[in-house]
Amino acid sequence: MKGTRLNTRIRRVIATGAIAVAVGPMLAACSGGDDGGDGDLTEVKLQLQWLPQAQFAGYYAAVEQGFFEEEGLEVEIIPSGGDIVPQDALANGDVDYAIAWVPKVLGSIEQGANLTNIAQIFQRSGTLQVSWADSGIEEVSDFEGQRIGSWGFGNEWEIFAAMAAEGLDSTTVEIVTQDFNMNAFLQGDIDAAQAMTYNEYAQLLETPNPETGELYTPEDFNVIAYEDTEGAMLQDAIWADTDRLESDEEYEETTVAFLRAVIKGWAFARDNVEEAAQITLEAGSSWGPSHELWMANETNKLIWPAENGIGVMDPAAWDQTVAGALAAVNEQDQHLITEEPPASAYTTEYIEQAIDDLGDEVDTVGSDYQPIEVTLNEGGN
Amino acid sequence: MTTALADPTSPVPETAPVARSGHRRTWVARLRAAVLGLLGLVGVAGLWEGYKAVGPEEGVLVGENRVLPRTTDLAMPHVWDMVQRLFEPVTSLGDAEPLWRVVLDASVVSLGIATVGWLVGTSVGLLLAVLMQRVRIAEWGLLPWIVLSQTVPLIAFAPVVRSWGSRIEIAGWEWPSWLSVAVIASYLAFFPVAVGALKGLQSPDRIHTELLRTYAASATDTLRKVRIPAAVPYLLPALRLGAASAVIGTVVAEVSTGYLDGVGRLLVSYAGQASGDPAKAWAPIFGAIGLGLVAAGFVALLGALMRNYRRGEAV
């Protein structure tokens, strides 16, 4: 009941908004011939799934290095604070492209959003479940009866997919919602905490152990990488509006140009990881420099080497993600999706075109990619 | 009895003009307020450190629920660590500013947005109140919606506001992202003003409004001469609530929409760094408290300016 009332309210609000939307362009049209002041650049909006940080280094590098501009694009990168859901912003037409994890968007697609994965930038899952070295939690099958940390909001599905693959009942674990930091784990409220290789795991290694006064080291923890389990799901991908891809040739061209610049951006971040971290710091990341560099380096590891070329979907990984999404049941007995996504859910057409266009100009595979060694300082500073 | 008379050592002669004595009394009152405020601050710090010193490391639990927090340095950093952290550079980057400076800059940005939100919200609230007072049917029609408007959760509202904003473009002017934050703040701020002002405008005794009718005063004159002055004692608490709502709305909406320059974003970002740098996470909280104090102080100033209309109210 409350839902209906809320919907009515929102609909009313939207109707008011619609007037503003209708009047806005009219006024804009009246002013006439004022658009595109900087030459003939096409304006593109890219919605991120979080605040600026090195996880998105390739996009910021493409802006800073002028790769988008070379392609005739003026790209505005829009951060999110959490309530702005990238795939919703894209489906609403607020932005042209969005970065989001595959399982979350699969859920949105099943609920009616018409979106297409045009580039699977992260080829590997960066999610870990971290426990203390003496906890005895060494693999997913040890989760039973434990307090398992997760951020929720669609970040928890790998846990349930991995548990389903082990034949574990999701109701046997207690899911504890995690904060932005690792304090709940450090203080013993969580037995195994969710952590991204590029962020929260580093937070642990930046924290002094109160017993020794020294920073924690990898030996202090057990780490389960979902990438090594059947629960692994594809993460950061670039999504586009399916209808516009099908009907709007200009949008298709923009998509390929956009991807060419993105590839150059990520190749730059691979070959100049320190500079890439500097770029995201200047773009507004608030992490300390050692944490930012760690993040840039770990993000590279999720992308490179890209055997099929950066962004090209590995069908096996897609199938595994879909299978995991179908199998996963959360602790409240809910499913993420109940049927296979439509064929339009991903395409490699545009990214392959972009890779072809670039030819030898850029190394799009990175077969000899080597990560650097990053030393974390206390607090990431 | 004046302070001067009460104090035998006072150099002020008994025949001192009343104005002088009154002047001195306000200074004593101000000094006392400042000392009390400072004592309060010291008291809070003392309570914090005292509990941290004697409280159990695991906090106090009633059954499964923790009613008092843990006393570890992670959960409750020492007061001096938090203060010291404020004066250290925000990161180890060569050109990093001290933490207090970053928090202050962000707080000023947030204050600006909250002010815009408060002004818009107050104007809308006052207009609605006047409309509802004048037109009975508007009150019946609008008031339930105004109450209902506050039940829309921010998590649903924030994306909608930003979504419209991203579509509005008037004559080359694009909707800036801070405006989405201000709109959300004003949405929270207009409510207490509308409800409080309506109550205030309806507060004059019938005998007063009827007196004005015998003078053949117009509705506008009645509004100006009777209703608005009578509404002031109701309006001030409403404005104070509105200011608090605007500040909270700004900080929450900044987090919600991913606005980068305000104190809300620092709250989230530094919370993410609270494991390795626990004292840093408290800096934006101090900034947010400062925002609230400035907002409350501003409304208190307004109250002082409208002192003449606050008869019958304990000032």
UniProtKB/TrEMBL annotation, chain A:
It holds the Pfam family NMT1. Homodimer. The keyword Transferase applies. The keyword Zinc does not apply. It catalyses: N(6)-(pyridoxal phosphate)-L-lysyl-[4-amino-5-hydroxymethyl-2-methylpyrimidine phosphate synthase] + L-histidyl-[4-amino-5-hydroxymethyl-2-methylpyrimidine phosphate synthase] + 2 Fe(3+) + 4 H2O = L-lysyl-[4-amino-5-hydroxymethyl-2-methylpyrimidine phosphate synthase] + (2S)-2-amino-5-hydroxy-4-oxopentanoyl-[4-amino-5-hydroxymethyl-2-methylpyrimidine phosphate synthase] + 4-amino-2-methyl-5-(phosphooxymethyl)pyrimidine + 3-oxopropanoate + 2 Fe(2+) + 2 H(+). Residues 54-276 form the SsuA/THI5-like domain. One of its GO terms (molecular function) is transferase activity. Gene3D superfamilies: Periplasmic binding protein-like II. Pathway: Cofactor biosynthesis; thiamine diphosphate biosynthesis. Keywords: Iron, Metal-binding, Pyridoxal phosphate, Signal, Thiamine biosynthesis, Transferase. This is Thiamine pyrimidine synthase. PROSITE patterns: PROKAR_LIPOPROTEIN (PS51257). Belongs to the NMT1/THI5 family. Responsible for the formation of the pyrimidine heterocycle in the thiamine biosynthesis pathway. Catalyzes the formation of hydroxymethylpyrimidine phosphate (HMP-P) from histidine and pyridoxal phosphate (PLP). The protein uses PLP and the active site histidine to form HMP-P, generating an inactive enzyme. The enzyme can only undergo a single turnover, which suggests it is a suicide enzyme. Residues 1-28 form the signal peptide. One of its GO terms (biological process) is thiamine biosynthetic process. InterPro entries: NMT1/THI5 (IPR027939), SsuA/THI5 (IPR015168).
